[in-house]
Amino acid sequence: MNEIIFQLNDKTVEAHEINTLYTLIGWNNSNQRTEDRTVSILETSAAYATARSGGELIGFGRMLGDAYTAQLLDVMTTPAFRKHGVATQIIQLLLDWSGNRFLGIYLIDGARNPTFYERLGFEAADPETDRLMYWQPQL
User: Fold this and answer.
1) How far apart are the first and last CA of the chain?
2) DSSP state of 90
3) To the nearest 10°, the Cα dihedral for 113, 117, 123, 128?
4) What is the pTM of this model?
5) Per-residue pLDDT of the chain (139 residues; tens, 9 = 90+)
6) What are phi and psi of 94, to 5 degrees?
7) In this entry, which stretches build a coiled coil (predicted)?
8) What is the per-residue pLDDT for 126?
């Protein structure tokens, strides 16, 4: 397996690479993700992170934000690289970048795997019923 290279705001990433990743993991089954729209998410994201192996995009995640809060979105890894720490590194890179920029960061746990996010410092809004999770910087 090649070395995995992580990068914040990778200006070389192309919309078609991200759309291929969305399709590969099943988040583009109706081909609703167009290159124009994907370029737009890169332009409007506060930050995004990529992971590459052998030049191939194998992971991606992004953050939307305003002056107070941010949302972690679209954390995805190709199936061949799951359980290799790729998503963890992507999230950690984004959390490190965020520092104290936001009062908090939230996400919706679509994978229903709260322990994954809890390892990174997120807490469930309501552990019994909610997939909404929060992270707050250490002030």
Assistant:
1) 39
2) H
3) 0
4) 0.91
5) 689 999 999 999 999 999 999 999 999 888 899 999 999 999 999 999 999 999 999 999 999 999 999 999 999 999 999 999 999 999 999 999 999 899 999 998 877 778 889 999 999 888 777 688 888 887 6
6) -70, -40
7) none
8) 80
Rounded CA separation 89/69 (Å):
21
Give the C-alpha separation, 43 to 47, whole Å.
9
Where do the structural domains in the chain lie, given as residue ranges?
A: 4-135
Sign of CA dihedral 39, 40, 41, 47: positive
* Residue 44: exposure state from Cβ atoms within 10 A (0-12, 13-18, ≥19): exposed
Query: Identity (one letter) of the amino acid at 69?
Result: T
Alpha-carbon distances of 73 from 1, 3, 49, rounded to whole Å = 27, 25, 11
CATH superfamily of 4-135: Gcn5-related N-acetyltransferase (GNAT) (3.40.630.30)
